[in-house]
Amino acid sequence: MTRMPRIKIAPSLLSGDFAMLAHECQRMISYGADYLHMDVMDGHFVPNLTLGAPIIKSLRPHTKGFLDCHLMVTNPEKWVEDFAKAGADQFGFHVEATSDPETLIEKIRNHKMRASITLKPDTPVEAVLPFCDKVDQVLVMTVEPGFGGQKFMPNMMEKVRTIRAQHPNLDIQVDGGIDTTNIEVASKAGANVFVAGSSIFNSISPEATIAELRRLAESQTN
Ligand SMILES: O=C(CO)[C@@H](O)[C@H](O)COP(=O)(O)O
Ligand SMILES: [Fe+2]
User: Fold this and answer.
1) pLDDT at 2
2) What is the residue with the minimal CA distance to atom 8 of ligand 1?
């Protein structure tokens, strides 16, 4: 019998205080976060600029938390070595940003990181299906990448269902606009890794919100 992979909650540090990143990471782990989701934007692949490998490197000694790096960059190949050296645990790239996903996945794995392949809302699921048995995670974007605080796109759940039907054990992550009103829909569709930025950081109790997100997601699994 196959079992759905474990539910994981991944606060996006994009909604945290960048001046206190180490503290924000430690706080999220102490509140029960499974992953620390780090949004890497280059101002080219997406119209926003955030952080790169030097920040991951500075952060690494301050937390044992799982550093889940979501690279929204042109030429992701260029950064594999730097992120590996910096101590990233997972390297996520966009399928739209590379002409050779398979070689990139191999390179990420050879650098001892988990590989995650990501697709934007307008990209058909068929773009990632040939690589699903070669990666550790597929990330289905539920907003247009570039900014936190956008609205969840429920029509992306069809992609999640398609991937889950073919890959019962794969980690399927959703990212963008996830909150307590829609996480059940995403979990029911087959997602098991949930990125949440604004809904966690802007809540009165981020700890209670993480627990509630987990409870709601787990309520849809059997
Ligand atoms: O990758 C991205 C945006 O491009 C995300 O990780 C967001 O940062 C999630 O933030 P919310 O939509 O949950 O506020
Ligand atoms: Fe992200």
Assistant:
1) 52
2) 148
From 34, 39, 42, 179, active-site residue: 39
Structure confidence at residue 187 (pLDDT): 98
* Residue ranges of the chain with per-residue pLDDT less than 70: 1-3
**190 known member of a binding site:** no
Tell me, yes or no, if 171 is annotated catalytic.
Answer: no
Is there a catalytic annotation at residue 175? Answer: yes
Query: What is the position in ligand 1's atom list of the atom closest to the CA of 70?
Result: 1
Check residue 222 and give its pLDDT: 73
Ligand 1 atom with the smallest distance to the CA of 146 is 4
pTM exceeding 0.95: yes
3-state secondary structure the chain: CCCCCCCEEEEEHHHCCHHHHHHHHHHHHHCCCCEEEEEEEECCCCCCECCCHHHHHHHHHHCCCEEEEEEECCCHHHHHHHHHHHCCCEEEEEHHHCCCHHHHHHHHHHCCCEEEEEECCCCCHHHCHHHCCCCCEEEEECCCCCCCCCCCCHHHHHHHHHHHHHCCCCEEEEECCCCCCCHHHHHHHCCCEEEECHHHHCCCCHHHHHHHHHHHHHCCCC
Taking domain 8-218, whether its CATH number is 3.20.20.70 is answered by yes
ipTM: 0.99
Domain segments of the chain: what residues?
8-218
Q: Is the CB of 177 under 6 A from ligand 1?
A: yes
